[in-house]
Specification:
This protein is mainly alpha-helical. It is built from 21 helices and no strands. Helix content is 85%, strand content 0%.
Length: 529
């Protein structure tokens, strides 16, 4: 390789890394913004509609999410082919794929709208909406689903941005739409619109998403793109359908874990169960949101190392992540679990004891999956062995469906939640066995797995030390209590990790040095775990 070619390659690598950092930063800011806005809207819904009304609200959103789950499948398949076209500098191919995506979205819209309107009475009955809101829900729900299906057009524009290495811009626009959505929801609730405010907010959110993403696409692609729908040729559709099939399996797994649980709880129990679950899942899913910040950079890093044939580097990176991920995610888990009752007072304004058992079940399933599979699934994508993850997802879906029937019949509403969490945890064990059988990786899984019971011990110690929250605690007092209990629980967790060997003391010291030098950098210092 000539010096000029090497310099050009180095410049490309630096540019990609810079773009990756920018996208990750924008992704983090956007997710934080949209999450905070969504959390703010919940207590207002609870105040205006009550817990049963909020549960009905969550059930409606669950049906809409299930009906529009295919959006991520379409987007993912388009991103794959558009990125390939972008790499080949085929701008005309990207535009053609965008027109195909718009055509598919409109076709699904035309097919689903009559179906949703014909089944609106059955859908409202399935969600078990409280009687005072049932009549309005029969109008709101079909309009809501129809709008969200049409929102697939926005997902197509988002795929164009991602293929142009502008994922951060796309996420920022989508988060702005989420903020606008929730702002109109809050405005509508304060004006007494009740469930109509849900439709008003969603209308604003879908419209602003499509318009915002289209404007961004025209700016980044150097001009307006044609939006006339286009049907694909069979040669184009065949690879897209195969790739979309793999994505659909993962989509089904996610729907069974969250949205389906809301409907099962509403029918087997009541919308009160759905309300409790909605609060618990929003707290538990904070782990997945934070963990998501690490997935994309890890996939990229593994892919770069693997492309150079540096398997030793891949092994070292896997070992490092299997130390850092349990430490960081575990700290979030012990904070939430040890102070969840105070967090609810801060958030909702009053304690909701029924949230506790659901939250502990969800946290156990989420953190087990994150610790065992978080680094591994990213590694599989980075080295191109996606079949390992697909097998794991299929096992998770089968287990979830089977356990849902059995545990719901035996235990009632809580059995559905237990089925989702336990199926995810059990399938994670299957994944880690497959991963180590197929790929030569460090045997660090047991060390990482030890962190899960260590988290449970830290939470038990912290809750025993903290005692029950006072019945008249204000939001300010609850915030102070959360900071005290949370810091104590995290300190106990780290001590127990070091004592059990799950976090070697030299590694902990080096991590502390890296954090210190990130704030006050020293020249000529290089750290490795």
């Amino acid at each position: 390789m000539t010096t000029t070619a090497y310099a050009r390659q180095l410049d490309n690598v630096v540019a990609i890394r810079k773009r990756l950092f920018q996208n990750s930063l924008l992704l983090g800011v956007s997710r934080l913004l949209s999450t905070c806005t969504a959390l703010i809207s919940v207590p207002i819904i609870v105040v205006k509609l009550g817990l049963t009304g909020y549960g009905g609200w969550e059930a409606i959103m669950a049906i809409a999410a299930i009906c529009t789950g295919f959006q991520q499948v379409i987007s993912g398949a388009l991103v794959w082919k558009m990125s390939e076209a972008y790499g080949n500098d085929n701008r005309a191919g990207i535009e053609r794929l965008a027109r195909i995506g718009i055509g598919v979205a409109l076709a699904l819209f035309l097919l689903s709208c009559p179906t949703v309107w014909a089944l609106r009475y059955q859908m409202v009955a399935l969600s078990n909406i409280p009687a005072p809101y049932r009549a309005v829900a029969r109008w709101v729900l079909p309009w809501l689903v129809s709008q969200m299906v049409l929102g697939s057009v926005g997902e197509t524009f988002g795929a164009v941005l991602i293929s142009h290495q502008r994922a951060g811009v796309m996420t920022l626009i989508q988060s702005g739409a989420v903020v606008a959505n929730n702002a109109f929801v809050i405005f509508g609730l304060t004006r007494g619109w009740q469930l109509w405010s849900l439709l008003a907010g969603n209308t604003v959110g879908v419209a602003s998403t499509i318009i915002g993403l289209y404007i961004a696409v025209t700016r980044i692609s150097g001009g307006a793109i044609r939006v006339i729908p286009l049907l694909p040729k069979w040669t184009e559709a065949k690879p897209l359908l195969r790739y979309a099939g793999f994505l659909a399996i993962g989509c089904v797994s996610v729907i069974l874990r969250d949205q389906t649980d809301k409907l099962v709880l509403a029918n087997v129990g009541s919308t009160l169960w759905t309300a409790w679950f909605g609060m618990a899942s929003r707290l538990a899913n904070l782990i997945l949101i934070v963990c998501g910040f690490f997935y994309v950079p890890l996939v990229s890093a593994v892919a770069a190392l693997n492309a150079r044939g540096d398997w030793a580097g891949v092994r070292k990176l896997y070992d490092n992540v299997m130390v850092a991920l349990p430490l960081l995610m575990g700290a979030i888990v012990v904070l939430i679990a040890s102070a969840y009752d105070r967090l609810l007072v801060m958030w909702i304004g009053r304690p909701v004891p029924q949230v506790g058992p659901l939250l502990f079940i969800l946290l156990a399933g989420n953190i087990t999956a994150v610790v065992l599979t978080g680094a591994g699934t990213s590694l599989c994508k980075g080295v191109g062995r996606v079949e390992i993850e697909t097998t794991y997802v299929v096992v998770c879906v089968v287990l979830n469906i089977t356990l849902k029937f059995i545990l719901t019949w035996i235990l009632g509403p809580i059995g559905s939640v237990l089925a989702s969490a336990s199926s995810w945890a059990l399938s994670s064990v299957v994944f880690i066995i497959l991963l180590h059988r197929i790929l030569s990786l460090p045997r660090v899984t047991l060390r990482a797995a030890v962190s899960v019971p260590v988290m449970a011990a830290a939470v038990a110690i912290a809750r025993l030390a903290a005692g029950a929250p006072p019945a008249t605690s204000t939001r300010w007092h609850a915030a102070l209590s959360v900071s005290e209990i949370g810091l104590f629980a995290i300190a106990v967790y780290i001590v127990l990790l070091i004592a059990t060997g799950a976090l070697p003391l030299p590694v902990f010291r080096r991590m502390g040095s890296i954090c210190r030098d990130a704030i006050m950098p020293r020249r000529g210092v290089r750290y490795e775990f």
